[in-house]
Specification:
By secondary structure, the chain is of the alpha/beta class. The protein has helices at 8-19, 41-51, 66-70, 80-86, 122-131, 151-158, 201-204, 275-291, 308-319, and strands at residues 3-5, 24-26, 33-37, 61-62, 73-74, 91-97, 113-117, 135-136, 168-171, 182-185, 192-195, 212-213, 237-242, 250-253, 265-268, 296-300. The strands form two sheets. Strands 1, 2, 3, 4, 5, 6, 7, 8, 9, 10, 11 and 12 form a twelve-stranded mixed beta sheet that branches. It has a four-stranded parallel beta sheet with strand order 13-16-14-15, covered by helices on one side. The longest helix is centred in the C-terminal third of the chain and has 17 residues, at 275-291. The structure holds threonylcarbamoyladenylate (TXA) and magnesium ion (MG). Magnesium ion is lined by residues 138-139, 147.
């Protein structure tokens, strides 16, 4: 499939295609999303089908303003400061759905809740403003595989399933954060983190008290399907918390590498031990190493703090075969 630079003109065309029922991959600050009208059954069906995503896994709705978000949900007013502080940005809130609004039940997987976010990437914002109505946008990858952080990744995964005549891939360069949004369910008394992600939970604790983090171990029946144990998987086996690589492995380092790494291929998430840089590189480097067809990718220990929590979450799930 052809990749189109996200020029003003192409964003305009992309908006029209979505309004006509097509599907468009576009950049956000986290990962690339696969956008379609949130009220359009046929388009939503196609999104599920090109991703190979099970229909019981609901899609995130993307909007351009808090006002637009508020029209879709039932919430109490003390949530509004959270929206004002963290939107646009890498936070997805799961809220009670306002049953009189137009998000198709297939997009919601028949749930009475709905996940919403406002992305901050200017291309995404411009697209959403042009479309005016809410769109759904799951990550633009094959279900269970690594999320895409470039237009090329999207094309690799979904290019053959999209149609040049009605769909589009918008290229806005590499995603700045590189890992998906933090998903928090605020429908119950106690807020629950369903997916650690681009927004550091510590930053939001000031506004949302007593947040609970769901742990994968006690999670055989996930309430957010992004919690399925196997997810974000490369084809190669991942050996986590490795100190050094074995000869026949690929190496994914973090922090300064020792001088004589004796292995097949090597990359480094961040030589200067910067977790933000590591998050930005994670999916892209895993894709590159995965292409080398090595049996195992050995990954250096990543500190479990800040966005490191999200990195480790994806690595642990990616290691589950
Ligand atoms: O950063 C992101 O969030 C990216 C970009 C494109 O915005 N999107 C993304 O979408 O990661 P997706 O569909 O790959 O992940 C959405 C996650 C899934 O784990 C899904 O199960 C969960 O949000 N989710 C959606 N609606 C939900 C709901 N009503 N209740 C619980 N979890 C929900
Ligand atoms: Mg996804």
């Amino acid at each position: 499939m052809k990749i189109n630079k996200a020029t003003k003109n192409n964003i305009e065309i992309a908006a029209t295609r979505i309004l006509n029922g097509g599907i468009v991959a576009f950049p956000t600050e986290t990962v690339y999303g696969l956008g379609a009208l949130a009220s359009h059954k046929k388009a939503i069906d196609r999104v599920f089908s090109v991703k190979g995503r099970p229909k019981n896994n609901p899609l995130i709705v993307h909007v351009h303003s808090i006002q637009q978000a508020l029209s879709l949900v039932r919430i109490n007013n003390n949530i509004i400061p959270i929206m004002k502080n963290f939107w646009p940005g890498p936070l997805t809130l799961v809220m009670n759905y306002n049953l009189s609004s137009s998000i198709h039940k297939i997009a919601r997987a028949n749930l009475n809740t709905i996940a919403i976010r406002i992305p901050s990437n200017p291309i995404a914002v411009e697209l959403l403003k042009k479309i005016k109505v809410p769109i759904i946008a799951p990550s633009a990858n094959t279900s269970e595989h690594l999320s895409p952080t470039s237009a090329k990744h999207v094309n690799h995964d979904l290019g053959k399933k999209l149609k040049d005549s009605i769909d589009m891939i918008l290229d806005g360069g590499n995603c700045k954060i590189g890992i998906e949004s933090t998903v928090i369910d605020i429908t119950k008394k106690q807020p629950v983190v369903l997916r650690p992600g681009g927004l550091n939970i510590k930053k939001i604790e000031k506004y949302l008290k007593n947040i609970e983090s769901i742990r994968m171990e006690n999670n055989s029946k996930p309430i957010s399907p992004g919690q399925f144990k196997k997810h974000y998987s490369p084809k190669s086996f991942l050996r986590l918390n490795a100190k050094s690589p074995l000869k026949n492995e690929a190496w994914l380092g973090f922090g300064p590498d020792s001088k004589n790494l004796d292995c097949k291929f090597k990359m480094n998430l961040s030589k200067k031990s910067d977790l933000d840089e590591a998050a930005m590189n994670l999916f892209s480097m895993l894709r590159t190493l995965d292409k080398k067809m090595v049996e195992t990718i050995a990954v250096k220990t990543i500190p479990n703090e800040g966005i490191g929590l999200a990195i480790n979450d994806r690595l642990i799930r990616g290691a589950n075969k």
